[in-house]
Amino acid sequence: MSNVVIKVEDLSKQYRLGEVGTGTLYEDINRLWYRLRGKKDPYATIGDINDRTQRGNSNYVWALRDINFEVKHGQVLGVVGKNGAGKSTLLKLLSKVTSPTTGQIRTRGRIASLLEVGTGFHPELTGRENIYLNGTILGMTKREVKQKLDEIAEFAGIVRYLETPTKRYSSGMMVRLGFSIAAHLEPEILIVDEVLAVGDADFQKKCIGKMGEASKSGRTILFVSHNMGSLQNLCDSAILLENGMLTYAGTAHEVVDRYLSGGDSKNAQSNRVAFPENDRFAQLLEVQVEDEEGNCRENYYYDEKIYLRIRYLLRESRRNVWLKFNLSRNGEPLFTSYDIDEEVLPVKRLAGEYVAKVELPDFLKAGLFTVSVSMVEVGQYFDSRPDVLKFSVDDSRSDTADKGWRLDKPGLLKVPIRWDYMEFPVLEDQLTSR
After folding, report:
1. DSSP of 98-135
2. What SS3 state is found at 325?
3. What pTM value is reported for the model?
């Protein structure tokens, strides 16, 4: 279609493990012989998937394998995945930093990339000179760079250091300048890797705002981030990479839900997890999410009661020991709760096995929720289980309208607010006379 600006077809990238190079003269000659005869690379038929946790049987590994997707004009596409999933490799291929082993990439328009801190900067050149250098690399004329130079320096917050060599810049200053150049030189396609994490919170907000403006002006953006909140706010669609393969594509919220729900399949199936006993004086034994009947489930409707059950063991009587749990929605922290008020401390608990049951609040909106549980003694964590369980809340049931909720309201929580009015009757002729 005419509005497709990036088209990726059967894209794969293979690397050889170990030393740089193909390894042997025999392999080089063999590759050349196959290429001269118009045949496929013989080593492209071998290779392991990119799973860093497993030992492989081959010296070749597929960083990416058979990737297919399209990006339309003005689309903001998020790329989601764990470290080592192939996100940065994909962006380097799109930016033409490296070439694919198989497959092809078709693009329309000028591409600006921000892949790593300091990419394209010469340490001996000043900030001003690097702006001209980077702008030229991105395909801009000297006049275009000159028109934007003051705006670039001000956005990056380096006006005072504009005539200073970049080798004296901090990593934060480098990434601010790099992003500012890429964003202000108005490319048709902007590719941003997880480099914004280097900047401070204020600069990250500025970057997200700038990318939002760019997307509204019709520019295409590919955005990689481990900040799920920023990714969902900025992107309208996303793809999920796992071990170098594209496993899911959909809206940003769907992909983030799928990414966050990944993990131990045994825990996901029952929504109950038990921990083996150890020799500590106290420990968590079991955590589960259940409904009103005590059934452990993954999915709940918004009008159902949801409970968190925690079983733990004290091998000796102690003071000031309490439970804590955190609840997050789509990667964003919601709240933290303790099983006792700090005002009533100290409290002594006798040795024994305990079961705590908590009813979760009914203001949870639709989404994927993550539970973290800890045991604490005077502020010190001695048994912490982050992201131990996940569950989802669904608002698609047909009887939701009977509850009087407007489910399309923005925000993280579904809070009923009562509005009261004081009426002062006014005659119609008095209103028309105003």
Report:
1. S--SEEEEEE-S-EEEE-STTTT--TTSBHHHHHHHHH
2. strand
3. 0.58
